[in-house]
Design goal:
By secondary structure, the chain is α/β, with parallel strands linked by helices. The protein has one domain: Rossmann fold. 38% of the residues lie in helices and 23% in strands. The protein contains 8 helices and 11 strands. Strands 3-4-5-7-6-8-9-10-11 form a 9-stranded mixed β-sheet, with helices on both faces. A two-stranded antiparallel sheet has the order 1-2. Helix 4 crosses helix 5. The protein is globular, with a radius of gyration of 26 Å.
Amino acid sequence: MKPRKSLKKREQRTESRPAHISMIIYAVAVIFFILVAAYFIFPSNSDIWNVSSDGILSYPENRGKVDVALLKTESGSKYTLETISFPSKDYIVEGLFRIPSSEKKVPAVVILPGATVSKEGTQTLAEILSGMGYASLGLEQRNQGGVDMDYDLKLFSKGREPIEHMMVFDALRAVDVLRQDPRIDAKKIAVIGESNGGRFAILAAALDRDIRGVIGISTSGYDIESQSVNIRNETILRFYRSIDPDTYLKSIPPRRFVMIHSVNDSIIPIDLAENTFRKAKEPKKFYNVTTGTHGFSGGMKEPLEIEMRLMFQ
C-alpha cells in the first residue's frame, strides 16, 4: 500500500505543475506585451548620440515630447512673447518664444545666436520675423554659444559626448518645442543661426530632414577636409569632421541653404563663407551686403524676407 500512497503524491505534484507553468507563461506574456507597447509608445534612447566613421553626427529622429515650462508672458498688440525653458540632456535651455497674433497656425524659426550673445540678443531679428508673420524661438545656448574644441576633443577621445554635439541636440529639441505647439505650423519650421550659431544651425538642419531650410548669417565652415592630410589620428579627424558644417552640406538638399554675409566682416571674413557656399549643393543662395560688420544688419532684412518666403511656400 505504501507504494500506492507514494504514487498518489507524485501524481498530485505532477498535476500541480501545469497550473504553475501556466502562471509563469501568463506573467511572461504580460511583461512582453508591456515591453512591446513601451517600445512603440515611448521613444527609446531618444538622446543617444553617434558619430559615424566618416565623422557624421546623428541623433534619433523620434526624440519624444518636450516638457516645456512657461516662466513669463508679455503681450503686445501684435504678438505674444513667452519666456520658456525645457530640458535637453543635462541642461535646462531657456528661450524667448515670440508668436505673432494670428487666427491660424504660423510658420516658425529657431534662432541660434553667436558666441557671448544671450537669448535677449536674438530679439531684434525675432521682432523683424514677427512683423513678417513668423514665430521664433531664440535660445540661451550653453556657454552662450562659446566652444572649447580642445576640451571637446578630450571628451570625444574618451567616448564621452562633446559639448558642441549637445548644443546641436539643444537646437533639435527647440525644433521639437515648436512642432508640438498648437499655434505653430509643424510642417513649416526653419533654423537661422548667426556666427557660431550658424554652424550649429547647419548641423541641426542636416540631422533633421523635416526642417524646411537653414539660413547662416556671418558664419562659415571650418574647411577640415583641406587640413585632413595633416591629421593622422583617425579619432581626431572624426571629431573635427563631426563639428564642421562643411561635412554636412550634402545632407541639406532638397531644402534651401542660404548664407548672408557682410563684406566688412573681420571676425569671419567673407571669403571663408564663400568657400563653404561653393561646397554646398542646390538649392542655395549667397547674399553679400555692405551694411554692418559681424552679425545681422539692416541690409540683410530684404534677403531674409525673400528666403523665408521661399522656404515656406
